[in-house]
Design a protein that fits this description.
By secondary structure, the protein is an alpha+beta fold. Among the domains are: about 55 residues; about 120 residues, Penicillin binding protein transpeptidase fold (Orthogonal Bundle), CATH 1.10.3810; about 60 residues, no CATH class; about 80 residues, no CATH class. About 40% of the residues lie in helices and about 15% in strands. It has 24 helices and 22 strands. The chain has a five-stranded mixed beta sheet. It has a five-stranded antiparallel beta sheet with strand order 9-8-22-21-20, with helices on both faces. Strands 4, 5, 6 and 7 form a four-stranded antiparallel beta sheet that branches. Helix 3 packs across helix 9, helix 13 packs across helix 14 and helix 18 runs antiparallel to helix 23. The chain is elongated and about 160 Å long. It starts with a helix and ends in a 15-residue tail after the last helix.
């Protein structure tokens, strides 16, 4: 540029030029418009942003504080002494509620230090954390980097279904709403309330939900007993319940645990000494030892008592609360109810001990051979290429081998040794037969589903009832260890013929109680045929007849003809009416079959236990318990209370007591049944090493298919049954008596129950 005087004058003239002035004004206007536009766009964007945020806030889910309480709690049944008997937990419901006061501060701090170090400082959202996450998003381009506070995590899991969005937009929307609710939530809930809900809800791996379940799962202890080292292990699982599981991924958990302990020390939540001690703790060896022990000793199946308890609880919840059976089962597995059972832990353990010991059962039930006897349950479904399905059952398999020559005697035969039977000795041989049959019906390329089960035989069941209360103290529904869930419970689900045990209940009891007979009344033990038939009644000993015999002798020596003649004298309807009062649910007053045949239990055969459908062990026990209880029948109960997870009473279960016979009748029958044990058919049932007054009655059904003993002390009544599931003759006729004696003697010895006489009523003179 020319800075001479002449040059400067020329430049001044240019500036004053009208054209130049016009150009300058134009660009000034453009600049101003640009500024105004930018400001306007910014204002629009800000306004739109506020509008969008407001729109998101307007669509925020409406929540109540109760919505933030964890849902899904495991339920618990308790023995009669208050100790835990069984835990019921559905999917994601293995959770035990604990208050914040029950969770040690060091455990709380472990989670805070690792998941939300500024939890006690922020108001629901962590601004510093958001900024840090923002830089990470810009740097890495991944929205998985978050700054979720514990408050936000609680909302995400309980309100926003875990935050599993399909795209980034939905994730952003959820984040905005989550942050808004987090700020609002902290106006209504304290930090302790938020942390309590969080620690009770969170998935902590290994099927454990909530801190209490996790403490029990990993360390087999209550949350109150956790150390800092153990708390850090559990807190480290929260980040990834699968990949930080200390059992399956100890190294990954250890890495995060180290960060947890470091954060705790830096935040002042633990001292240097505590930090060093925790780092040095060989915690993972301990975890593995506990996991290994639980794996080998863990009961994966419910007990027979619990199986029946489930049936009764779901039925009662449905009826008492007016809900469906499905809803009742949901309550049991997800609502955290408490069930206070009548099950006596000591008594049940004694019964379990004898029933899981094979030495207490005969090796074989239908020959003199030794070895275990099994019954086959079998089914096979074959799926053909034309999409049709053919179903095969056990009888198809047996028919396939109908011409088989059983030279080794591995199968049960009534006559000869041709064919095979569902009762067998050799598992390997039966497996080979199954494979051969399968290959004969399944073509190449076809798919099939096969089910087989080898059930040891003969089977057995046992129940114990406290007669004064009607409380069922122990149940065992099958021989040997229970191996499945909700398997056949022979004590409560399998009605069997009761044989001579009904002589007392259907004949002698009503005769003495309502027909004026006494123990001294006599009947003629002589040939007898059922009226209008050619069917003769035989005595069990098959050595002729004994002439006139008293009812007392009919009880102690179990005389068939005396029992039938007594029932004939008083009338079968009277005997039947007493059976109804004694609580039997399987009696048949009248039933018409499809072929027009009528069946009824109102006949003389009930004196010998000849029933259409048989009875359940627990019901026979309860009937005899009424005699032991001075004539008062108590409906058998398996629990006394059900409470919800807040402790509110849902159901109070009380036995229904009914005086079904005179106290004098009960005592007279007891006195006669004491003779059964002292010098009658049950002489081997007397305790060997412990003095105790006992009374009871043996029972044998046709061909020894069913063997029973029902007896009682002044404290407990017990019933034992043995037999094949499908009615085969038993050769060993006494082992059920040994079971009853050994179990009952150990019960009374263990509980140190003193001997006492059965109390004689004042009406007996």
């Amino acid at each position: 540029m020319d800075y001479s005087r002449y040059g400067m004058k020329c430049y001044a003239r240019k500036l004053k030029s009208p054209l130049k002035k016009l150009k300058s004004k134009f660009w000034i206007v453009v600049f101003r418009l640009l500024i105004i536009g930018i400001v306007g766009v910014a204002i629009c964007l800000i306004t739109a942003g506020f509008g969008a945020v407001n729109a998101l806030i307007d669509t925020v889910p409406q929540i109540k504080l109760d919505d933030l309480k964890p849902m899904g709690y495991s339920s618990t049944s308790y023995y009669s002494d208050g100790t835990v008997a069984q835990v019921f937990a559905g999917a994601q419901a293995n959770r035990v509620l604990v208050s914040i006061d029950e969770i040690p501060v060091k455990v709380q701090h472990a989670f805070v230090a690792l998941e939300d170090v500024r939890f006690y400082e922020h108001s629901g959202i962590d601004i510093k954390g958001i900024m840090r996450a923002g830089f990470s998003v810009v740097k890495v381009g991944d929205l998985s980097y978050g700054a979720s506070t514990i408050t936000q995590q609680l909302l995400k899991n309980l309100i926003f279904s875990g935050g599993n969005e399909d795209n980034y937009l939905d994730k952003i929307i959820r984040k905005v709403q989550e942050q808004y609710l987090a700020i609002k939530l902290e106006d209504y809930m304290t930090k302790d309330e938020i942390l309590e809900n969080y620690l009770n809800y969170i998935n902590l791996g290994n099927g454990a939900y909530g801190i209490q379940a996790a403490a029990q799962s990993y360390f087999d202890k209550d949350v109150s007993e956790l150390t800092i080292s153990e708390a850090a292990v559990i807190a480290s699982v929260a980040y990834s319940p699968t990949l930080r599981n200390p059992i399956n991924y100890p190294e990954q958990n250890a890495e995060r645990r180290a960060s947890c302990l470091k954060n705790m020390k830096e935040a002042g939540y633990c001292t240097q000494e505590e930090y060093d001690e925790a780092l040095a703790d060989d915690v993972y060896t301990r975890i593995m030892d506990i996991a290994s022990r639980k794996k080998t000793s863990n009961v994966t199946t419910f007990s027979y008592f619990t199986d029946e308890l489930i049936n009764q609880v779901t039925k009662d919840l449905s009826e008492e609360l007016g809900i469906t059976t499905d809803q009742a089962q949901h309550m049991l597995y997800f609502d955290g109810i408490s069930i206070y059972t009548t099950q006596d832990r000591q008594i049940q353990s004694i019964v379990d001990k004898y029933y899981t010991d094979e030495e207490n059962f005969p090796d074989f039930g239908f020959t003199s051979s030794t070895g275990s006897c099994y019954e086959l349950n079998y089914s096979l479904s074959v799926y053909h290429e034309d999409e049709s399905v053919t179903h095969y059952q056990r009888h198809h398999l047996l028919d396939y081998f109908k011409d088989y020559n059983d030279t080794e005697g591995l199968y049960y035969h009534e006559h000869g040794r041709t064919g095979i039977n569902e009762l067998f000795l050799d598992e390997d041989d039966m497996n080979a037969k199954i494979e051969e049959f399968r290959n004969s019906v399944v073509k190449e390329g076809e798919k099939y589903i096969e089910s087989k089960d080898f059930v040891k035989q003969p089977q057995s069941s046992f129940t114990v009832i406290e007669q004064a209360t009607g409380e069922v103290k122990a149940v065992y529904g099958g021989r040997g260890p229970k191996t499945g869930l909700r398997t056949l419970n022979r004590a409560t689900q399998s009605p069997r013929q009761v044989g001579s045990t009904f002589k007392v209940l259907a004949s002698f009891l009503p005769a003495i109680d309502a027909a004026g007979l006494t123990l001294a009344s006599v009947q003629d033990d002589s040939p007898f045929f059922y009226p209008q038939t050619t069917k003769e009644v035989y005595n069990w000993y098959n050595t002729g007849f004994r002439g006139l015999q008293t009812i007392r002798k009919g009880i102690s020596s179990s005389l068939n003809i005396v029992a039938v003649r007594t029932l004939q004298q008083i009338g079968a309807p009277l005997g039947y009416s007493y059976l109804e009062k004694l609580g039997f649910s399987t009696l048949v007053k009248s039933k018409k079959m499809d072929d027009g045949t009528f069946y009824s239990d109102i006949n003389l055969a009930i004196a010998l236990g000849g029933l259409t459908d048989g009875v359940y062990n627990v019901e026979l026990n309860a009937a005899y318990a009424s005699i032991a209880n001075k004539g008062v029948y108590n409906t058998p109960i398996m629990y006394t209370e059900i409470r919800d997870h807040d402790g509110n009473l849902l159901i109070s279960k009380k036995t229904k007591s009914t005086q079904v016979m005179k106290t004098s009748t009960a005592w007279l029958l007891t006195d006669a049944m004491e003779d059964t044990i002292t010098n009658g058919t049950g002489s081997r049932l007397a305790f060997k090493n412990y003095k105790m007054h006992l009374a009871g009655k043996t029972g044998t059904a046709s061909k020894n298919n069913d063997l029973w003993f029902v007896g009682y002390s002044p404290y407990y009544t017990a019933a034992v049954w043995t037999g094949f599931d499908h009615n085969f003759e038993q050769k060993d006729k006494s082992y059920q008596q040994d079971l009853w004696r050994n179990i009952m003697e150990e019960i009374h010895t263990t509980l140190e129950l003193p001997d006492k006489e059965f109390e004689m009523p004042d009406s007996i003179v």
